[in-house]
Design brief:
By secondary structure, the chain is an alpha/beta fold. It contains 18 helices and five strands. It has a five-stranded parallel beta sheet with strand order 2-3-4-1-5, sandwiched between helices.
């Protein structure tokens, strides 16, 4: 992975190159950014640049033996830790056991997300249903293994690089063990934490890391990457992807089952009409979807609610919505206003958090619908006053 292979992020790339040229490379760093923002690709391109034998002004040379090894993620001084699962047959799994599959996934998709890796890991390595339900994590024995590797002599690199991908998945014991490494960092070693939600890291760890903040891609950047593709379905997908470049690059209309619009319309109609029988049936249908699809749907709902607010306060502009969305929102937007909009947004955001925490989906969606019954009726009362 070269800097030039990563879409955008030019200022961030320049800062990283400059830190190396001025010999100001921090031994403990944090690359943090949302899903699909390119933070992992950037960390690996940076690791390659730090060890390039003939670096150019803005990138690695591409041809030295170090660059060739880094291009395959096979350099002996590059170590990657990532979340795995303890199983009934393997109670002490190491990243190194699965690293070849992980490399394959990254090289196929440099914007690799935890959900991508989780799906691959479960399908490739987990057979028992009980194991498939477990959350991926970084365990203390994985940190012990890194400690062992740090005690070994560096093979050939200028900087040995340890990448901790998704460090927010470290349990408390693993976090405390890694903290000891940060307190006495080994020489000629760069530790790079690549996080999506750094707020879940221990404050004592965060205080020892030099942070590089990576912003999400804009909607226009995601649209441009597909040579200006402007089908309604693709524009809608870019809008709800929240700058996830990995999702956009892998977008394929033929493989996407998308009935989010219909589900949103149905939810709003049955909630407004207080049709509790249909609300119960609707909740059953949505709760049968995967957690990933449920989060995707709730995120889409949040997007359309914000579109309603924009429509009401910007001369009725729905330029970024599809024809089907426009047809519904033109009549529905008036029911989302300053008296209830913030409460509705909070309601959906809380539902997203609860789904991610593996709470009961049926209860979440049923309760969400009941709250909507009250909040949407508030619009009617407000209009009558």
């Amino acid at each position: 992975m070269l800097f030039k292979d990563i879409i955008g992020l030019e200022k961030t790339k320049e800062q990283l190159v400059l830190s190396h040229q001025k010999n100001r490379v921090a031994h403990s760093q944090l690359f943090k950014g949302p899903k699909g923002s390119g933070k992992l690709a950037l960390a690996l391109a940076y690791a390659r640049f730090l060890n390039c034998k003939n670096p150019k002004d803005k990138d690695s040379c591409k041809s030295c033996d170090s660059c060739i090894q880094f291009s395959k993620l096979s350099h002996p001084d590059l170590h990657i830790i990532f979340p795995v699962v303890k199983t009934t047959s393997n109670k002490f799994p190491q990243s190194s056991e699965y690293v070849e599959i992980w490399k394959k996934e990254f090289l196929k998709n440099p914007y690799l997300s935890l959900s991508n890796w989780s799906n691959t890991f479960r399908s490739e390595f987990l057979e028992k249903v009980s194991d498939k339900k477990k959350e991926l994590a970084i365990y203390s024995h994985q940190i012990t293994d890194i400690n062992r590797k740090l005690s070994l002599k560096i093979f050939s690199a200028k900087h040995r690089v340890i990448i901790i991908w998704m460090p927010e998945k470290m349990n408390l014991q693993a976090s405390n063990k890694f903290l000891k490494i940060l307190e006495e960092p080994p020489k000629k070693t760069v530790l790079i934490f690549v996080a999506q939600d750094s707020s879940n890291l221990l404050k004592t760890i965060l205080s020892r890391l030099q942070a590089t903040n990576i912003k999400p891609y804009t909607i226009q950047q995601t649209i441009n990457i597909r040579n200006g593709e402007k089908t309604e379905e693709f524009l809608k997908f870019c809008r709800i992807s929240s700058g996830d470049m990995g999702a956009v690059l892998n977008y394929n209309i033929d493989t996407i089952e998308d009935n989010d619009t219909e589900n949103f319309i149905e939810l709003m109609r049955i909630s407004f009409k207080s049709n509790f029988s249909k609300i119960s049936n609707w909740s059953d249908e949505i709760s049968a979807k995967t957690r990933q699809d449920q989060v995707k749907f709730l995120t889409y709902c949040l997007d359309l609610i914000r579109e309603c607010i924009i429509y009401n306060y910007s001369n009725h502009n729905l330029a970024s919505t599809t024809n089907k969305e426009q047809e519904f929102l033109k009549n529905f937007a008036k029911f989302i206003h300053e008296q209830n909009s913030l409460s509705i947004i909070d309601l959906f955001e809380e539902a997203v958090k609860n789904i991610k925490r593996n709470a009961n989906a049926k209860i979440i969606f049923f309760n969400l619908s009941l709250e909507l019954v009250k909040l949407l009726k508030l619009k009617v009362k407000f209009a009558e006053n």
